[in-house]
């Protein structure tokens, strides 16, 4: 059917309160709006105010809808996103988030959209939307192996999942029906174990995700068969509902001149370096490491002898344990060879520069996509959520090298950092991995392929609108 013959849809987007989630929801909103559909993007006032500016030609198709976050005594004033809090306050943010139910329900009653796409957290939302005859999809901004690790939704909801100790997450789950070693390790299994347990918000992440899955007509997921078919197929089998891959949604390198004052000096420095010689180092905004581990990373970069560009931003929430001081005299000693960049940096532009030859990353899914788009070998240092599994998949496919860690506490030494970098950049194994990573850019950087996925996932929304509106 030609676009002009189709009825334009009204689609509500409702991400979890973390910018690592909000940004992929914005990106997907823009892609949907480009097809002539109307978006209502719902979040809290301060998050909406912190969104990147919408392109002028789409601004009229994307309504930004602010619903105030209920005040909770345990949260700091004005905290509306994970970057405004420390880890111990996460459950309180989830509790406040649950308080958005009445505001969102009113909005849905008044506007009666065709679809609502939401994140893992609002366990109450599918029922509300179903009652109003609104079609519902869980938009999973992370990949299939992470979601498949949670298992069948019914067990997540009932709490009958029998995995109760870290060891249970250190092997592939019993429903995995293909050969893989992908699993958590002792130092990062704790995150998954906690996700299975009820906490101060009153609900476990397992329960939230389970409810969201069973209440949805479909799961849309940022994944593609060309990179990894097995976990994606497993998800369909586990969940008995359409699993629609949106592709990897590789971002476009923006030509935003208003940020040139930041990019130009960085580019000038990269221009002076040899092709493929620089390691780009960035652990993401929400990973905080201890002072001791920061020192080891710095010394490791120094010991490696490799040129580097390190984005090291102070966490927005400072505590005594994350002061982020570099070792004494570090910047003088590495001067000329290494740059420590302490504010926002245009990651995608840096990764696209030909001097960059490797990416030391915490292994967030977006970072992996951005690194492999340009065929960069990854040197991985995962911490929480999906990062450990991502790192193991990357290692299994020989696209990256995980820095050796202490199994118990996940600590690493300057020597393990330096050795991993040298292995990646100079040794034969590194060369082999580099070739494979470069090859991978044909999938990750394939705009045609991912545009096709986007087209198909939007066609899915167009063709599967809820018909039974008289509940
Ligand atoms: C996706 O759809 C757009 C029209 O909305 C079209 O221009 C584009 O070529 C399509 N992409 C692919 C890969 O088919
Ligand atoms: C069992 C469990 O994960 N408990 C956690 C609940 O949340 C608090 C912080 O809000 C943690 O300190 C507990 O470890």
From TrEMBL:
Enzyme Commission number: 2.4.1.273
Keyword Transferase: yes
Protein origin, superkingdom: Eukaryota
A single MF term (Gene Ontology): UDP-glucosyltransferase activity
InterPro entries: UDP-glycosyltransf_plant, UDP_glucos_trans
Keyword Glycosyltransferase assigned: yes
PANTHER family for the chain: GLYCOSYLTRANSFERASE, UDP-GLYCOSYLTRANSFERASE 91B1
Similarity comment text for this entry: Belongs to the UDP-glycosyltransferase family.
The name this protein goes by in its record: UDP-glucuronosyl and UDP-glucosyl transferase
